[in-house]
UniProtKB/TrEMBL annotation:
<keyword id="KW-0132">Cell division</keyword>
<dbReference type="GO" id="GO:0031262">
    <property type="term" value="C:Ndc80 complex"/>
</dbReference>
<dbReference type="InterPro" id="IPR038275">
    <property type="entry name" value="Nuf2_N_sf"/>
</dbReference>
<keyword id="KW-0131">Cell cycle</keyword>
<feature type="coiled-coil region">
    <location>
        <begin position="310"/>
        <end position="422"/>
    </location>
</feature>
<keyword id="KW-0158">Chromosome</keyword>
<dbReference type="GO" id="GO:0044877">
    <property type="term" value="F:protein-containing complex binding"/>
</dbReference>
<dbReference type="GO" id="GO:0007052">
    <property type="term" value="P:mitotic spindle organization"/>
</dbReference>
<keyword id="KW-0498">Mitosis</keyword>
<dbReference type="GO" id="GO:0051315">
    <property type="term" value="P:attachment of mitotic spindle microtubules to kinetochore"/>
</dbReference>
<dbReference type="GO" id="GO:0045132">
    <property type="term" value="P:meiotic chromosome segregation"/>
</dbReference>
<keyword id="KW-0175">Coiled coil</keyword>
<protein>
    <submittedName>
        <fullName>NUF2 protein</fullName>
    </submittedName>
</protein>
<comment type="similarity">
    <text>Belongs to the NUF2 family.</text>
</comment>
<dbReference type="InterPro" id="IPR005549">
    <property type="entry name" value="Kinetochore_Nuf2_N"/>
</dbReference>
<feature type="coiled-coil region">
    <location>
        <begin position="176"/>
        <end position="282"/>
    </location>
</feature>
<feature type="domain" description="Kinetochore protein Nuf2 N-terminal">
    <location>
        <begin position="4"/>
        <end position="144"/>
    </location>
</feature>
Length: 469
């Protein structure tokens, strides 16, 4: 449980957060660091937990003192004192798994410890901050969804009104059906006349186009001849130019311009090569760093083995010292074998001195090896820092480009909204045009009907005059 995903807050930060966000009034003013940490007061800690449950889960104070109805208890008065603690433990046990804490126990309510309370409160504060942040995002989404729904409802109402208008325009009343039939017949007759005129005009145009095509073919031939002559003249001009000698001043100016352009190209090429070498060095350094880290790991393993050897040598030295002490005791007991025992002791002292010399050499070698390892490690860290700075610079560039892309997207959305508004305006203008066209059609139909009635009256008068004659 030591490797958690939420940050560990200090006790001062926790107390300030509790005063400003969770507790209110006198509770926040009277809260002290010693009331929660060190030798905590259970009533204040229980009150903090209850306020957190009220804020996060919506649990009221009455719920902490309520007995469950599905349990039959003979004497409920006995459980009145333990009920708040038990209910608080039950609710906290439900809340804390959401905060990535799974080892909450009832001892943390009855006999809390500072480290565990710090971890629990830091996890709860992290969850509360995350909940508030996601709540703001959800409210923004809800507002945008409401505005979108209102817009869609408004557009649906407008579409319905337009559909009703179209239906009204498309439906023909019963009173005007006969007039519309007559108008349709007259329109068909006019269409036939127009088609005949169109065919006549089309045949005339085809004859004219055939004549023009012949004229165009003749002109194209003339153009090709002119192009051939131009090509020959250009070749002759080039030959003449090659014969003409250029002036030295023009050559000098041209050479100077060429030299300046060559210098600029060389400078740009050097800059590009330097950038390429930097990126290549950055890419080549990574595998070398990894190989060096692997070597350092192997060296650390060897160092561990050397430490184990040192421990074994020190154990042998202790064994030798024990043997020397036993030899001294035997010297006191046996005076006859003093010389032989002294020789053995001297030999063992020599062994001890050699072992101590070896130990000193091993220690010096280990210290040297540590210094070299630390130097290599510092070099690797410096290289890693340089690579990290380059990576951060690249990430900053990527962020800037992303911001530019977002700005472009916003501009495109604004243009799309403007285009939609223009579309709506054009649609309204088209509706007005359609209405004016319908009015013009109706007026033309009425004038045609009047003209037809006059013609009929004239025909009837002619027929009556003919019959009378």
């Amino acid at each position: 449980m030591e490797t958690m995903t939420f940050p560990r807050y200090s006790p001062d930060d926790i107390i300030s957060y509790l005063r400003s966000h969770i507790l209110e009034g006198a509770e926040a003013r009277n809260l002290v660091k010693g009331d929660v940490f060190g030798s905590p007061r259970l009533d204040i800690l229980h009150l903090i937990y209850l306020r957190i449950l009220q804020k996060v889960c919506g649990i009221r104070l009455e719920h902490a003192y309520m007995m469950p109805l599905n349990v039959d208890i003979m004497y409920p008065q006995i459980y009145e004192g333990f009920l708040p603690v038990c209910n608080l433990y039950i609710h906290m046990e439900r809340l804390l798994p959401m905060c990535r804490i799974s080892d909450f126990q009832i001892a943390d309510v009855l006999n809390p410890k500072t480290k565990r309370t710090v971890r629990f409160l830091s996890g709860i504060l992290n969850f509360v901050n995350f909940r508030e942040f996601r709540r703001e995002v959800y409210l923004e989404l809800q507002l945008s969804y409401k505005s979108a729904m209102e817009k869609s409802q408004h557009l649906e109402a407008v579409n319905r009104e337009a559909a009703l208008k179209l239906e009204k325009l498309n439906t023909v009343p019963v009173e005007h059906e006969a007039e519309i039939k007559q108008l349709t017949e007259s329109i068909r007759e006019l269409e036939q006349l127009l088609r005949q005129d169109y065919r006549r005009k089309q045949t005339a145009l085809q004859e004219v186009t055939s004549q023009k095509k012949t004229d165009i073919a003749e002109r194209t031939q003339k153009l090709n001849e002119c192009k051939v002559t131009m090509a020959t003249l250009e070749e002759e001009q080039e030959q003449l130019k090659s014969k003409i000698v250029e002036s030295p001043e023009e050559r000098k100016t041209c050479n100077e311009l060429m030299k300046e352009t060559i210098k600029k190209l060389k400078i740009s090429k050097q800059e590009v090569t330097e950038k390429y070498e930097r990126y290549r060095d950055a890419v080549e350094v990574l595998p070398s760093c990894q190989a060096e880290l692997q070597l350092y790991q192997k060296k650390m393993e060897l160092q561990g083995e050397n430490v184990e050897r040192l421990a074994s040598v020190s154990s042998e030295a202790r064994n030798l010292e024990d043997q020397v002490e036993s030899a001294q005791v035997e010297l006191k007991k046996a005076n006859t074998d003093e010389m032989s025992l002294k020789r053995a002791v001297t030999a063992k002292h020599e062994k001890l001195s050699t072992a101590e010399i070896q130990l000193q050499k091993m220690r010096e070698d280990i210290e040297k090896h540590k210094c070299t390892v630390l130097e290599h490690f510092n070099e690797v860290q410096e290289k890693r820092g340089a690579v990290y700075d380059k990576v951060m610079a690249i990430r900053k560039e990527i962020k800037q480009k992303k911001d530019k892309i977002e700005q472009l997207k916003d501009d495109a959305e604004e243009k799309a909204t403007k285009a939609k508004e223009i579309h709506l305006i054009l649609k309204a203008v088209l509706d007005k045009c359609h209405e004016s066209l319908l009015k013009a059609v109706k007026t033309s139909a009425a004038s045609r009907a009047e003209i037809i009635d006059e013609i009929r009256e004239g025909l009837l008068s002619i027929q009556s005059s003919a019959s009378s004659s």
